[in-house]
Amino acid sequence: MVEGKIPLGITEDDVPLGTHLVHFWKTDEEFESGVRFLQLGIDHPSEYCILFGHDEANQRVLEILQRTCEDLDRLLQDGRLVILRRESSAPVTLAKIEDAFSAAVQKGATAIRYLGNLGMGRDPLPGRGADEVVELETDATLLALRYPCVILCMYDVKTVSGPLLLDAGFGTHPLTVWRDALHRNPHCTIQEMRTISQGKPAR
Questions:
Q1: Which residues contact 150 (CB under 8 A, 6 or more apart)?
Q2: For 38, 65, 162, 203, which has the most beta carbons within 10 A of its beta carbon?
Q3: Are 82 and 51 in contact (CB under 8 A)?
Q4: pLDDT for position 38
């Protein structure tokens, strides 16, 4: 692992801590490819993992993880893997995420891997719908800058609406993964805000 970066797992790329990116998927293989992001964290004893989403998506991720991790229950018990369910509003959800990040840092985490799922299942959207998703994703981009973390959001392109893919998927993530390739996202509408938060001049 390069200092200040962690391997993404979906591609051969290393990504800097403080990164918020989106992985667009539509096949079972692409979904499992996204879960490799968490598998790498589980295999690294100083990394902590957080899984967020509705019950169906979380269960699917856990089933994949169980294939390679013999003691998943112990990881849950020790807090190296934390599962967060959806809350009713973006602010409450963000507070839960930040609490989990803070707890991981206090336990000595060198890196935090957060995997969130949007789409798929009976209840594809958290909170009050599309506006809540955009608000949560925008705040997550800024939250990532304050912790040694990489936030990866997985969007099911078969069930997430076109407007939401544009506004939340492309609009709030500085990096995107599509068809096994990592791309810088020129459509991210909060790049300038992110640059200001880092204290760096805009390029």
A1: 6, 8, 15, 16, 17, 18, 19, 20, 21, 37, 111, 112, 113, 114, 144
A2: 38
A3: yes
A4: 96
| Contact (Cβ atoms closer than 8 angstroms) between residue 163 and residue 127 | no
Instruction: Give ∠ CA 141-65-18 in degrees, rounded to 5.
Output: 20
Instruction: Give me 76's structure tokens.
Output: 């849950």
Q: What are the sequence ranges of the domains in the chain?
A: 5-198
Residues whose CB is less than 8 angstroms from the CB of residue 81 and which lie 6 or more positions away in sequence, other chains included: 38, 42, 48, 49, 50, 51, 72, 75
**CATH architecture of residue range(s) 5-198:** 3-Layer(aba) Sandwich (3.40)
Which residues lie below 8 Å from residue 99, measured CB to CB, with a gap of 6+? none
CB 25 within 8 A of CB 57: no
Q: pLDDT for 4-46, tens place per residue? A: 999 999 999 999 999 999 999 999 999 999 999 999 999 999 9
pTM to 2 decimals?
A: 0.87
Confidence of residue 89 (pLDDT cuts 50, 70, 90): confident
Structure tokens, 52: 């967020």
